[in-house]
Fold this sequence. Notes:
By secondary structure, the protein is mainly alpha-helical. It is built from 12 helices and no strands. Helices cover 65% and strands 0% of the residues.
Amino acid sequence: MNRVSVAPVSTGVASAILSVMKRFHVIPVSLIFMLIAGMFIIPACGSNDEIDEPEYEQVIPPTDMPELEDAEYSVDLDPLRAAVAQNPDDRDARFTYMIALRRSGETMDALEQARILGEVSSDNDYISLARLEFAQMVLDDVPADYPDRAALVQEAIDGMWIALGYEPSSIPGHLALGRLALEAGDADKALHHLSIALTVTEIGYELRIKMAEIYIERGDYEHARVHLDASESLAEEADDRDALREIRGLKSQLG
């Protein structure tokens, strides 16, 4: 079986984004990690062998990246806003503006920029990145009690189907779609996409607990125990006593 490398961004788009970031003196942290991860896995794409089916590879980012405070991401949004207004078709400028808005806490404006970029771009890489960024903002930045959160979750799900159509082996895409499906109450899709993400990366004990709960409801105690055992180890490492009590309570249901 041949390997398919999971690259979150192509070299062409990486160069374009870096060019814009230099122009506006903006270096968003999410793009730093995406570009660094791409550097580690793009060389694996050189094989000319015919690909039968995808196999996922783990991408391990460098561990010596400096910890930066939010204040270090302070950005003057005016020149970015002006650049987008001057040339609405400049995908590089719009993408950078979107990231800067998110880092500045302007979530709704950032969502709108992601929505525009995902709808008008003719570049598959930009479409996938914009849809993924939209999904992650809905999951992580939109308050749980936001009145239209359910509609945003559904919009994010629809967008991730489009993104995964372009990049079917995107692990961040499967992880995002799995989390969205959990929130939308679609257990089958949640288990499917979270299981794909687990072939490459640890998804955390919170999500594993939710997967275990689904398996318990279905009477699949074998799979439930696998996730609860893994969750217990991770929660012990994090010293999360509340999670440990929840895990052990679920384990008691397994007999």
